[in-house]
Here is the input.
Amino acid sequence: MGRQPCCDKVGLKKGPWTAEEDEKLINFILTNGQCCWRALPKLAGLLRCGKSCRLRWTNYLRPDLKRGLLSEFEEKMVIDLHAELGNRWSKIASHLPGRTDNEIKNHWNTHIKKKLKKMGIDPLNHKPLPMITAEKPPQNHQTRQEPPPEKEAAVMAETSLQSTVTEAKHEDKIPFDNSMEVDYNFCIDEVPIIETHEILVPFVNLSTPTSSSTSTPYDVESSNILEDFHFLPTLDWEYDHSNTMSIWDFLTNDDSERNASIEALVT
DNA sequence: AAGAAAGCCAACCGCGACGGA
DNA sequence: ATCCGTCGCGGTTGGCTTTCT
Here is the structure.
């Protein structure tokens, strides 16, 4: 005997919800509360299965939902929680009021994964990605294909990040084995990948029109690192200038330090 | 300007967990 | 102890939108 379908699918509607259906569902739940989902569609006059109603309510119609992109703080929370919990999206969502598991899952797959990869971190296990042997650039500069000017900054920033990670490895800031089969056994939030100023030096000096951007090397003492950090095109994370914690601090601090920083941010 | 490719996200599907009979 | 119905979760898909060529 096969598994029973979750509901009688004959005559039931699928696909995007209409405003009228939304209204019926909202009105019913606001009047009667969330009763058993299986019975709800009939009672609410909807030609949907209970599962579809539950999903629509929890992921889209619930009044306590936040709309819009995840904030940087929420994004960092997701990264941190993912390192701890893995793909348990509902557990992760429970730490982020107003966000759904589906929303977080989508955001992870479309945004965060890419950011981590750009940072040289494997989004699956939060460990450094195996170093890819970069092709030697052509010696003859005339043969080099120049990226369009508007893309150059992004390319440079990315290259700078990757090379800095590589440098950190060579400098024994993190253990490195050419075979890349070693299990580093650390999480993203434990990796002292690079110092903040190490990231910014080549980038700010080369491409940003900041007050500190001159032909001389980046002056850490007299420049506002956090402000300049906003020009980093491949990492659009922003930070409250009044707070001294950078994303790198967040990613590299130990738990107690990070928690203190989070508290400082929230308060 | 138009077609192709990539990005994005709401919604669906199927499985496992859980609780009641 | 077992069966069955329901719910919730995580993975996947479909189709709309945006960007690129």
